[in-house]
């Protein structure tokens, strides 16, 4: 992406999505779980005198009598904290088909540190995997396209470049300055940069202010401990052969406009007060629209899930069909990242338990496309339940037994599935009584 100084300045008309602050917050609102949304709106109500938020206790007011009878303790299930590795692993399995390139991406995940940086050189990758330069470049590119933006970078400069590249609201020169003039930029030699690109130094200051909003550690947020509790945002009820899906009130907090206060403030005839009130009214309207869109998106994704996984709700074995984020995204006409934000941390309440929406997304495993990760976990659970507790099955032995059943997966995958099921390693399952 070399800059050519010989080019003259010229105007150019292009179409580009402007990622305004409100649009960024709309995306963030979709990503919030029920507790996060409640905290966000409470903070907004403190900042906006025209906004009041009403929540219904337990989010059950819009449910039928039989649905209300679900014990309150179900809403107090701790929400498990997700590591960066698990978050990236989920995205890989739910967005990429089972190919050698995906295997190489999975290999790279092992070398992503807690801050989100890739800590292995191309030469080491080639030595350990036998991959050629093109394959390595493709795998790293796929890794760096995952969420959060900036993950998979080898250094701070590359991380900032990735974050800038993924943000349509970035200043026009931000990417090229970070790429070509990073040292001068961080050393504040802004006069040199401004002269090079024939722009005012204020534009370089604007780029600096923008870069300050980026994070030098894109993966650090995943190491923070969370003490959230599950608050289902969708509830499904079986009615004969049909499934009825509804939003709970957790997904539909009532935003109340303080009309009387607004009218009273307008009567002051103070220009600054009038402008302030109009600004806060616009913010209220935007919040109400964004929260409504969030609920509608969750409902649409939920409806597609129960349609695809219909048998799960009627068969006591709870079988799941292979389903990828892109499958739902394509059907709904949205981006995969929208579906990812929608299912992460959002829960569905059924008559037989509460499930995170991403539970219903499973990739096909091994050579049998009909086998989902969930069904393989069930087979794994059955094998361990039937093992000799004095001689428990090792992960490698489990790989062999699954292979005999027609499921080909790696030892590491078995270990990850076992850990996700809360099953200890064979050495800790051994009994001596």
Automatic annotation (TrEMBL):
Gene3D superfamilies named in the record: Homeodomain-like, RNA polymerase sigma-54 factor, core-binding domain
Organism domain of life: Bacteria
Cellular component GO terms, alphabetical: DNA-directed RNA polymerase complex
Keywords per UniProt: DNA-binding, DNA-directed RNA polymerase, Nucleotidyltransferase, Sigma factor, Transcription, Transcription regulation, Transferase
GO biological process per UniProt: DNA-templated transcription initiation
The keyword DNA-binding is annotated on this UniProt entry: yes
GO molecular function: DNA binding; DNA-binding transcription activator activity; nucleotidyltransferase activity; sigma factor activity
Keyword Transcription regulation: yes
InterPro entries: RNA_pol_sigma_54, RNA_pol_sigma_54_core-bd, RNA_pol_sigma_54_DNA-bd, RpoN_core-bd_sf
Protein family membership: Belongs to the sigma-54 factor family.
PANTHER family assigned: RNA POLYMERASE SIGMA-54 FACTOR
Protein name according to UniProt: RNA polymerase sigma-54 factor
Organism whose genome encodes this protein: Loigolactobacillus coryniformis subsp. torquens DSM 20004 = KCTC 3535
Taxonomy of the source species: Bacteria, Bacillati, Bacillota, Bacilli, Lactobacillales
């Amino acid at each position: 992406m070399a800059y050519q100084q010989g080019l003259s300045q010229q105007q150019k008309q292009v179409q580009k999505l402007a990622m305004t602050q409100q649009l960024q917050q709309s995306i963030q609102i979709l990503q919030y779980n029920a507790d996060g949304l409640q905290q966000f709106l409470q903070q907004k109500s403190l900042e906006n005198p025209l906004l009041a938020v009403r929540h219904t206790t337990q989010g059950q007011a819009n449910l039928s009598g039989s649905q209300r009878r679900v014990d309150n303790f179900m809403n107090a299930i701790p929400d498990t904290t997700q590591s960066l590795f698990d978050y990236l692993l989920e995205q890989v399995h739910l967005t990429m088909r089972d190919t050698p390139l995906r295997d190489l991406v999975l290999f790279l995940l092992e070398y992503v540190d807690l801050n989100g940086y890739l800590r292995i050189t191309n030469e080491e990758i080639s030595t350990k995997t036998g991959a050629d330069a093109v394959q390595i470049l493709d795998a790293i590119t796929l890794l760096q396209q995952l969420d959060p933006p900036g993950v998979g970078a080898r250094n701070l400069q590359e991380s900032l470049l990735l974050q800038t590249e993924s943000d349509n609201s970035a200043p026009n020169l931000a990417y090229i300055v970070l790429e070509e003039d990073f040292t001068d930029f961080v050393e504040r030699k802004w006069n040199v940069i401004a002269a090079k690109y024939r722009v005012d130094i204020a534009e370089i200051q604007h780029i600096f202010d923008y870069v300050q909003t980026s994070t030098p550690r894109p993966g650090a947020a995943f190491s923070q401990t969370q003490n959230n509790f599950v608050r289902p945002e969708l509830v499904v009820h079986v009615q004969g052969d049909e499934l009825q899906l509804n939003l709970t009130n957790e997904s539909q907090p009532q935003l109340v406009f303080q009309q009387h206060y607004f009218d009273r403030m307008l009567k002051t005839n103070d220009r600054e007060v009038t402008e302030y009130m109009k600004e806060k009214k616009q913010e209220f309207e935007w919040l109400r629209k964004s929260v409504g869109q969030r609920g509608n998106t969750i409902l649409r994704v939920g409806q597609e899930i129960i349609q695809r996984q219909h048998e799960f709700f009627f068969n006591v074995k709870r079988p799941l069909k292979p389903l990828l984020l892109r499958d739902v995204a394509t059907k709904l006409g949205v981006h995969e990242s929208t579906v990812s934000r929608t299912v992460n941390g959002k829960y569905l309440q059924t008559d037989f338990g509460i499930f995170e929406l991403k539970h219903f997304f499973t990739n096909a495993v091994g050579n049998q496309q009909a086998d989902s990760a969930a069904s393989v976990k069930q087979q794994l659970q059955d094998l361990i339940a039937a093992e000799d507790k004095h001689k428990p099955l090792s992960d490698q032995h489990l790989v062999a037994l699954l292979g005999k059943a027609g499921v080909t997966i790696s030892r590491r995958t078995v270990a990850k599935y076992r850990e996700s099921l809360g099953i200890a390693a064979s050495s800790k399952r051994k009994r001596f009584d």
